[in-house]
Amino acid sequence: MTQTLAWPQLSGRVARLPAPVVALGAFAAARCAGIAVLAAVARRTGQDTSALLGASWDARWYKAIAAHGYGRTLHFGPEVTHSDLAFFPLYPGLIRAVTTVLPVSGGAAGLLVAWLAAALAAYGIFAIGAHLFDRRTATLLVLLWGLLPHSVVLSMAYTEPVLTACAAWSLYALLTGRWLWAGALAALAGLSRPNGFAVAAAVIVVAAFATVRGRGSRRALLAALLAPTGWCAYVLWVGRRKGDLLGGYFGVQDGWGSRFDLGLASLRFTRHMLLDGERFVFPMTLVIVAAAVVLYALLIADRAPLALLAYSGVLLLIVLGGSGFFESKARFLLPAFPLLIPLARALARTAKTRPWHATVVVAALAGLSFGYGAYLVAVARIPL
């Protein structure tokens, strides 16, 4: 009887908290639990948790750029050349700024920036959910984002949190008619990652649609012009540095094996994976990408706002049509949080009528997220 009465009391206390606090608290709890599981696995396998979070794979490149600037190139063969020019400058620039102000290492600064950016992103995702739907759906949208199979990356020294923070608030600005904010944040998103151009694409598409419908304005035009400047500026800077203004950056990406080939390389790898077998990470990636396609179809069926459809659609197109590290495709989808809206709405309805059913679903997702995240970072030993 005591337990039965405790649930309404707890629910009532939570309801009295500011809505964003509940959402950010749920997100922080999810990510802290994920780190705890990773730490337990790392301890069991004789590894250092802080090193796994702050110095794994791409994190080492970002730390080096922050400390020494651009100029590092590794040659692995005649057709495989890894240059640090493939990495956009916003995140290493923020790391450099933090190490200049605070007495911390590059790894610690990278984690600090990533964690703060993840919190800002979660707040922006909540703001979009609350604007379009209600507090419950918005909170679950944030929680689902924090419980994705690859959400361990949100706790690492990677750029996805920075991109998602810029994207979420740019999209919120679009949805609320703040054109210049949308354009400026899209420009920052374009400086964070190659697929950050998806934010600019959303701004341009929405501005063009508003103009066609006769609802355009000078601010909408300025936002459309401003949005791609960050991405274009870095691509042109790399091109000038490589002696090929328009093709230099894409040559750098080609050295990493990353190019847009309409998905031919991904189809060949999928055939190899299905016929010859591969490590667990690869079929898991295939399932995640397939699920993303289904979720995008549901987002279209739900008649989501054009800004969210354009942004998610471009991110999904880049993942489907790009070659390179197949196992990284799931990570590239982390910023595509609008794909989770159909799930959040369905889960919100379930939570209202059958709360224990919703609890079981969230618990299952948490188990998958924490277990798979620890496996990815501490066991699989494969590029993220």
Describe this structure in words.
The protein is mainly alpha-helical and about 375 residues long. The chain has one domain. Helix content is about 70%, strand content about 0%. It has helices at about 1-15, 20-45, 50-55, 60-70, 90-100, 105-130, 135-145, 160-175, 180-190, 195-210, 220-225, 230-240, 250-255, 265-275, 280-300, 305-320, 330, 340-355, 355-380; strands at about 75, 80-85. Strands 1-2 form a two-stranded antiparallel ribbon. β1 (about 75) and β2 (about 80-85) form a beta hairpin. α6 packs parallel to α8 (about 160-175). The longest helix is centred in the first third of the chain and has 27 residues, at about 105-130. It is globular. The relative contact order is 0.12.
Main traits of this protein?
384 residues; mainly alpha; two-stranded antiparallel ribbon; 2 strands; 72% helix; globular; disordered N terminus; transmembrane; Glycosyltransferase family 39 protein; membrane; transferase
Give a brief rundown of this model.
The chain is an all-alpha fold and 384 residues long. It is 72% helix and 2% strand.
Strand content bin:
under 5%
Largest sheet: 2 strands, antiparallel
Query: Which strand order does the major sheet show?
Result: 1-2
Distance between the termini: 48 Å
Number of domains: 1
- Secondary structure class reads mainly alpha
Point out poorly predicted stretches. 1-10
Instruction: Identify the overall geometry.
Output: globular
Which secondary structure elements does this structure contain, and how are they paired or packed?
Layout: H1 2-16, H2 19-44, H3 49-54, H4 58-68, E1 73-77, E2 80-83, H5 90-101, H6 106-132, H7 135-146, H8 160-175, H9 179-190, H10 197-212, H11 218-226, H12 229-242, H13 248-255, H14 264-276, H15 281-301, H16 306-321, H17 329-332, H18 341-353, H19 355-380
Antiparallel strand pairs: 1-2
Helix pairs in contact: 2-6, 2-7, 2-19, 4-5, 5-6, 6-7, 6-8, 7-18, 8-9, 8-10, 9-10, 9-11, 9-12, 10-11, 10-16, 15-16, 18-19
Domain Glycosyltransferase RgtA/B/C/D-like: 89-213
Subcellular location: Endoplasmic reticulum membrane
Membrane topology: Multi-pass membrane protein
